[in-house]
Amino acid sequence: MILAEKAPYQCLNATEAAALIRSEPQLRLFDARDLQSYRQQHLEGAVHLAEERIGLLLNRLPKDVPVLIYCYHGNASKTCAQTFVDFRFSRVYSADGGYRPLYHALEGLQAGSA
Fold first, then answer.
1. CA distances for 41 relative to 30, 83, 85, angstroms
2. Burial class of residue 16 in the structure, from the number of CB atoms within 10 Å of its CB (0-12 exposed, 13-18 middle, 19+ buried)
3. Contact criterion met (CB below 8 Å) for 98 and 11
4. Cα gap 95→17, rounded to integer Å
5. Is 36 in contact with 56 (CB distance < 8 Å)?
6. Bridge partners of residue 48, in order along the sequence
7. From first to last of its 114 residues, what are the pLDDT tens digits of the chain?
8. What are phi and psi of 29, to 5 degrees?
């Protein structure tokens, strides 16, 4: 018998990730950059995804809550996204391109809706 594999996380470009942030009120947004970068600037509502806290988050968050992770360029966020998938989260997203493109895409959406 072959068991069905859990669907992996999805990679979203900056525009898709920004649209998800704007349209999904239950979304949990995580910043996988270092703490200094997070403290200097991060997206509104983002929680710093520190190694020492990830276990707590994985055990406390509902598995069906959508999760979007961003980092510097979109590489570390993929590793973190896979961790969420491994812990049976069903809606996990990684932002391709990282923080800067996502920040600018969100600004563009705000300007377009003003």
1. 13, 25, 27
2. middle
3. no
4. 6
5. no
6. 31
7. 555 455 589 999 999 999 999 999 999 999 999 999 999 999 999 999 988 889 899 999 999 999 999 999 999 999 999 999 999 999 999 999 999 999 999 998 665 554
8. -105, 130
SS3 label, residue 61? coil
Question: What single letter denotes the amino acid at residue 97?
Answer: G
Cα separation, 94 vs 104, in Å, equals 16
Angle (CA) 74 80 82, round 5°: 105
Q: Round to whole Å and give the CA distance between 43 and 107.
A: 11
* Catalytic annotation, pick one of 71, 76, 81, 106: 71
Name the β-bridge partners of 95. 12
If you ran DSSP here, which 8-state letter would residue 8 be given?
A: -
CA distance 112 to 32: 28
| Placement of tokens 């707590």 in the chain | 56
Q: Is 71 annotated as catalytic?
A: yes
